[in-house]
Design a protein that fits this description.
- With 212 residues, the chain is mostly helical.
- The chain has 13 helices and no strands.
- Helix 5 packs antiparallel against helix 6, helix 6 packs antiparallel against helix 7 and helix 7 runs antiparallel to helix 9.
- The N terminus is likely disordered.
- Plays a role in cell envelope biogenesis, maintenance of cell envelope integrity and membrane homeostasis.
């Protein structure tokens, strides 16, 4: 019985990269579609019209989608990654405030708060001599202490940059533009930044040292 349970647990942990990507990006896609098609959705489902403008319909859809994503992720892996879990909690809290107060300011502040929180945790950990990013990505790749320290520093600063970008965009552009940028702006920026870290990862990889 114990061996069968461990086998089932292992199978649940083996989630394909495409499924992981879908679970992470799916809620953003729902948010974008619900905002751009809010009027049509309200006509099709009159109950949604009570939520108000498309941004409020999109916020409600975002909350449902991210709840489903986290639930499916937990069922498949039996654990929740730290970053998606924190982001999901903030979405639910600030989404509820957005709907209750009918003020989209709260959902717009979510990326600022999440990125500032992550940046503060990473840089604060370095202040106390801890490269906390290693605890998050240690299963993905192995780096030496200097590599984790440099990578943690870069990601900590990058999170603050994302927070500043979000503040600039929502304060200076329309809500629709902010939604579009949240979906199609932040992701490419993050992907480019991640690719730029590959030389650092290769340089400080313990696996490459073992092979040599």
């Amino acid at each position: 019985m114990n061996s069968e349970r461990s086998t089932q647990t292992t199978e649940r942990q083996d989630v394909s990269p495409l499924l992981k990507l879908a679970l992470e990006l799916g809620p953003l896609g729902v948010f974008f579609i619900a905002n751009s098609r809010g009027a049509q959705l309200a006509e099709m489902f009159p109950a949604l019209g009570a939520l108000g403008q498309p941004i409020f319909i999109a916020t409600a859809a975002f909350m449902v989608a991210i709840s489903i994503s986290l639930t499916v992720s937990y069922i498949l892996t039996r654990h929740l990654p730290v970053m998606p879990m924190v982001s999901g909690v903030v979405v639910l809290v600030f989404g509820a405030l957005t709907l209750y107060l009918q003020d989209d300011l709260f959902i717009k502040l979510k990326p600022t708060i999440v990125n500032t929180l992550f940046g503060s945790i990473l840089l604060g950990g370095l202040f106390f001599g801890k490269s906390l990013l290693g605890y998050v990505f240690d299963s993905a790749f192995k780096l030496d202490a200097e590599g984790w320290r440099k990578l943690t520093m870069r990601w900590g600063v990058f999170f603050f940059v994302l927070a500043l970008i979000n503040e600039f965009v929502w304060r200076n552009f329309s809500t629709d533009f902010w939604v579009d940028f949240k979906v199609f702006g932040f992701m490419p920026i993050t992907m480019v930044f991640t690719m730029m870290q590959l030389p650092l990862i290769q340089k400080h990889s313990l696996e490459s040292e073992e092979k040599s």
